[in-house]
């Protein structure tokens, strides 16, 4: 993952937000290549989900909406994560993620290496002498607030007492680590250690993930509004408007792409969990009773779409929710999962949400959300299937799967490692780069500018005349540009008329170059782009 993060900065895909001020956790900026990549993802989704269908229309709703929207949706009362806080360093973690954080912490890694043999079948064995040694040496720097480090004798003596009392019963890893974080078990009970400093964590507390703001001059309860935590509610709140203007009939969908904001407790894994991100959401309204059929259709459709943008089939999977994991109003939910370097994680959720959202808005707004079905002459509140995807997660999945290192050998037998981003051409930030062989030969530059202008009308095209051709190819490989066009002396006809007005077209993946007539470039690249 470090290599991908480094490339993202080096080639202008992703920068830390406000980097010159030390950055701000959970916020990211997309550089020139990243902005194009994201735009291509959104265009691909919009084209495939909206424009190429007759039963989906688009929407672009405001980010800040009436606060009642979030009361109706349940976000004001329900959009909470239980969170724990370190009593010393004040770090915060999601309660359900804290053990993963501990397992990945520096102090745990050092402790398990030096003082604990590998836990067998979930139970822990330890050596008190090794624990003591770790506590007075490395523990002092890595986990200064851990009870074992602050008072090793006290912690070890009650640990051994506890063992004797529970003779024969093995300790699980969380239990063992909690013992190391506890000085006075009789007073506090077992405590969970902080992943950073080792001090005890608080009990879980509820934490609302919505960012609050105020509209207008007054800053009181009456002016409180929220930055939307999902784009979906803008769609539900506009259901009647869109229905009245779009000439659509159920089944039909409303799609929206836009920013969403969540005050995530632990933004993590680069851009994977951010506090500001973009969603691409579709609410597909259906007749009650057709939920299972439409849900299945959308799951299949969405999985195919991920392959169409170049994510390899073998890295994609589905997580089908068990009945007990579903929200009370949902009849089915499937997550599209991707194998990231940090584990298999969600890209998109596809949920059959019944008529929960429209019913809630009917209740809170007093406006009827009923639909009159011309064919069956029935009135009903439509049910909905919601495929909801994250642009930033898809961008990250594409960056991870495109990254490749390849060892090449030149004619002189010299080997070199080239980094190449193997994006599907459809999604690549720049489709074609144009180079004059030499930047100090005006005739070459002039001809190359002509070719550049020609291509620029059809494709995202980049001009590059810095460094030598080899360096330019390496730069474009790292940016994932599928084709490079070089204008050389042959183009000018210096080696004879047969090569005049031809250029070299170099393929990113094979590194092969072919000689192509300038007049054939646009149709040839267009054909390659279509695949
Ligand atoms: N309207 C349903 C909804 O918002 P969700 O599973 O909370 O469902 C949908 O979010 C998608 O939005 C996720 O699958 C993910 O791709 C993206 N997403 C959610 N939280 C995110 C975060 N903190 N950072 C980046 N993407 C996020």
Blueprint of the fold:
Layout: H1 2-10, E1 14-16, E2 28-30, H2 32-51, E3 56-59, H3 67-73, H4 75-78, E4 80-85, E5 92-94, H5 98-103, H6 106-115, E6 123-124, H7 128-136, H8 138-142, H9 147-150, H10 152-165, E7 171-172, H11 173-180, H12 185-188, E8 205-208, E9 212-214, E10 224-226, H13 232-237, H14 239-246, E11 252-261, E12 276-286, H15 291-308, E13 316-320, E14 332-340, E15 343-352, H16 356-365, E16 371-373, E17 378-380, E18 383-390, H17 391-402, E19 403-409, E20 415-421, E21 432-436, H18 442-456, E22 461-463, H19 469-479, E23 483-487, E24 502-507, E25 513-517, H20 518-530
Parallel strand pairs: 3-11, 21-22, 21-23
Antiparallel strand pairs: 1-2, 4-5, 4-8, 6-7, 9-10, 11-12, 12-18, 13-14, 14-15, 15-18, 16-17, 19-20, 23-24, 24-25
Helix pairs in contact: 2-17, 3-16, 6-7
The structure holds glycyl-adenosine-5'-phosphate.
Write a structural description.
With about 525 residues, the protein is of the alpha+beta class. Helix content is about 35%, strand content about 25%. It is globular and about 95 Å long. The protein starts with a helix and ends with a helix. The model has no long low-confidence stretch (mean pLDDT about 95). It binds glycyl-adenosine-5'-phosphate. Glycyl-adenosine-5'-phosphate (GAP) binds next to strand 12, strand 15, strand 18 and helix 17.
């Amino acid at each position: 993952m470090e290599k991908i993060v480094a490339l993202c900065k080096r080639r202008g895909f992703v920068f830390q937000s406000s980097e010159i001020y030390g950055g701000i956790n959970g916020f990211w900026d997309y550089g020139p290549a990243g902005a194009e990549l994201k735009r291509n993802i959104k265009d691909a989704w919009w084209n495939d989900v909206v424009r190429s269908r007759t039963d989906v229309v688009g929407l672009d709703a405001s980010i800040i909406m009436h606060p009642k929207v979030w009361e109706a949706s349940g976000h004001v009362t329900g959009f909470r994560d239980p969170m724990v806080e370190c009593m010393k360093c004040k770090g915060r973690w999601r309660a359900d993620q804290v053990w993963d954080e501990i397992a990945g912490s520096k102090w745990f890694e050092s402790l398990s290496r030096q003082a604990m043999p590998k836990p067998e079948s979930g139970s822990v064995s330890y050596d008190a002498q090794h624990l003591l040694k770790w506590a007075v040496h490395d523990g002092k720097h890595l986990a200064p607030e851990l009870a074992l480090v602050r008072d090793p004798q006290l912690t070890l003596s009650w640990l051994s007492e506890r063992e004797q009392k529970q003779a024969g019963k093995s300790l699980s890893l969380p239990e063992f680590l909690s013992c190391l974080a506890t000085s006075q078990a009789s007073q506090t009970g077992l405590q969970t250690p902080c992943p950073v400093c080792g001090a005890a964590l608080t009990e879980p507390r509820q934490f609302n993930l919505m960012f609050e703001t105020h509209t207008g001059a007054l800053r009181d309860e009456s002016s409180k509004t929220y930055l939307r935590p999902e784009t979906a509610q803008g769609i539900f709140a506009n259901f009647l408007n869109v229905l009245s203007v779009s000439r659509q009939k159920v089944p039909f969908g409303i799609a929206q792409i836009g920013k969403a904001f969540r005050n995530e407790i632990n933004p993590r894994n680069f851009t994977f969990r951010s506090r500001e991100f973009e969603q691409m959401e579709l609410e597909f309204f259906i007749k009650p009773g057709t939920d299972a059929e439409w849900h299945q259709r959308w799951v299949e459709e969405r999985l195919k779409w991920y392959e169409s943008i170049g994510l390899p089939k073998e890295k994609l999977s589905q997580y089908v929710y068990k009945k007990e994991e579903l929200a009370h109003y949902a009849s089915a939910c499937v997550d599209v999962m991707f194998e990231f370097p940090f584990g298999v994680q969600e890209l998109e959720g596809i949920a059959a949400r019944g008529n929960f959202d429209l019913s809630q808005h009917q209740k809170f707004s007093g406006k009827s959300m009923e639909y009159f079905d011309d064919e069956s002459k029935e009135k009903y509140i439509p049910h909905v299937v919601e495929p909801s995807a994250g642009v930033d997660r898809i961008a990250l999945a594409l960056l991870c799967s495109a990254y490749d290192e390849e060892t090449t050998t030149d004619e002189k037998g010299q080997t070199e490692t080239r980094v190449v981003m193997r994006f599907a051409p459809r999604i690549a930030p720049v489709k074609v780069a144009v180079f004059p062989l030499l930047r100090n030969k005006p005739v070459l530059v002039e001809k190359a500018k002509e070719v550049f202008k020609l291509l620029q009308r059809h494709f995202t095209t980049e001009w590059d005349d810095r460094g030598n051709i080899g360096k330019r190819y390496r730069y474009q490989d790292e940016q994932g540009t599928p084709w490079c066009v070089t204008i050389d002396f042959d183009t000018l006809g210096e080696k004879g008329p047969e090569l005049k007005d031809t250029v070299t077209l170099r393929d990113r993946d094979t590194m092969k170059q072919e000689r192509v007539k300038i007049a054939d470039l646009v149709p040839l690249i267009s054909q390659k782009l279509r695949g």
